[in-house]
Amino acid sequence: MKTLLCLLIATGVGAALQYAGVPHGLLLGSILASALVVSNLRFAPTLPLSLGYVQIVLGIATGLMFKSWDSHTAAAMLPSLGFLFLCLAAQITVAGFWLFKVSGWNLKDSLLAVYPGALAAVFDLLESERASSKVIVVHLVRLLSITVLVSFLIPGSTGVALADSGPMLVSTFLILLSLIVLCIGIGRVLLRIGVPAPFMLTAIVATGVFVKMDYLHDFNMPQWSVDFATVLLGVLIGSKFNDISLKELIRHGKSGVMSVALMLLIAAAFATVAARILGSDPLSLWLAYMPGAIETIAIVAFSGGLNVVFILTHHLARMVALHFAPALIVQARRWGESGS
């Protein structure tokens, strides 16, 4: 009953902020509302299978955005992808070092706090690594900072919705069902080897393949499914504040602001250098080098009339690299333990 109440309150607050024109209001409102509810009622919402649903829905919705992607586009952005990975390394090193040395965090929490992955992947990592709850404060600060900053710099409609699909044909339904089954199957395999948020990663790549094979060219994710996934993700993140006091929130929030500011400044520096060398738009490069928040970036890029394919391809490359990196570390650790 408490879980249902939390969901209803989160949906109401998120919908109100969205209606008021707050950028990414549905997600931010559900995070805020659920955080307040669990902090006052002192309980953790029970939402089985919700994280898998969130990953698959957001993964498919993101994958559908790559309809205009082709080999020429990929070849043209290869040099920029090189700058991206250098930028990621600098962001993680500098921000992580600041939390470790200046804020006095332990090494694991410092690295998880600056992990520039998707929100679903971050939440997955926090669960699997049993990280301190203060880490989610940094990621919440990251989400808020990126959302407010890019929305302020790139004015446009904050309520960008997915295009409406016509009545779903039986053939389209079967293709979509096969896509979901494929995502679940491959995702479970990736989950076993330790890949964070494997269903989201699989859904993005598989949907892109289906789109290029012209299986889903007229299909758009229903808006209600994405909105429900957004609310669920907000509740899952907000529930992490169950054991965080206001004093801890303020103290860790200061560390979060500084670490996120460092990551954004590094992204801006790399975007400036890359723009001069490659002759690309510095604003698009800055959005491409942002440390996460792919959903926010996608919406703002669409409403601002920017090169969405260019920006999201960088984020997809970032997600692939960062989602598989923890799995490789886990496997290397296991091989080392078995060999010793």
TrEMBL record:
It comes from the Bacteria. One of its GO terms (biological process) is regulation of gene expression. InterPro entries: AbrB_dup (IPR017516), AbrB_fam (IPR007820). Keywords: Membrane, Monooxygenase, Oxidoreductase, Transmembrane, Transmembrane helix. The chain crosses the membrane at residues 51-69, 81-100, 140-163, 169-191, 198-215, 221-239, 260-279, 285-312. One of its GO terms (molecular function) is monooxygenase activity. GO terms for cellular component: membrane. PANTHER family: REGULATOR ABRB-RELATED. This is Ammonia monooxygenase. It comes from Pseudomonas frederiksbergensis.
